[in-house]
Amino acid sequence: MINAKSAIAILSVFFLSTFAKAQLTVHKMISVGYTYQNQSFGEIGGKLLFLKNDDVIYRLGGSALMGSAHSQFAIMPKISADVLLNFEKNVDFNHSYYFLMGAEGTNKYFAPKVGVTLFGILDLTGGYAFPIGNSGINCKELKGVNVNFTLNIPTVFIHDMFK
Fold first, then answer.
1. What pLDDT is stored for residue 137 in this prediction?
2. Among residues 108, 138, 111, 139, which one has the least CA distance to residue 125?
3. What's the average model confidence in pLDDT over 24-36?
């Protein structure tokens, strides 16, 4: 069983070795979404998007999962790392969809995931969550099928909207 520290170390080494090879552009995004993990959670947070060209895009994010568990409001911190792939080479901004693979982790579970994203803005992913330690929120264990629907809003878009 992989623990949270090992997962973070593996993802960090992967991303840092990739960044050492090329000059990357960084874009900030605000993310809002829905997560189902044996119960429903709303999600709000931020992500950093790293790219050299748009064939392969990397994202790192942090957010808060918020929901009701046994009539009590619960909040969990979540970190995520994604790789977005589009196999059409030498096409700059005209990519419309990407295959997405990544992982997310909270203080209650770790979940590898796969899915698709439209322009890197609208994500639909699914995976399987593995519990970490005492993983229940008010006695409900967070393991099994994991589904995420997320809207990633670039901060540049928000800035330009209010000019």
1. 52
2. 111
3. 90
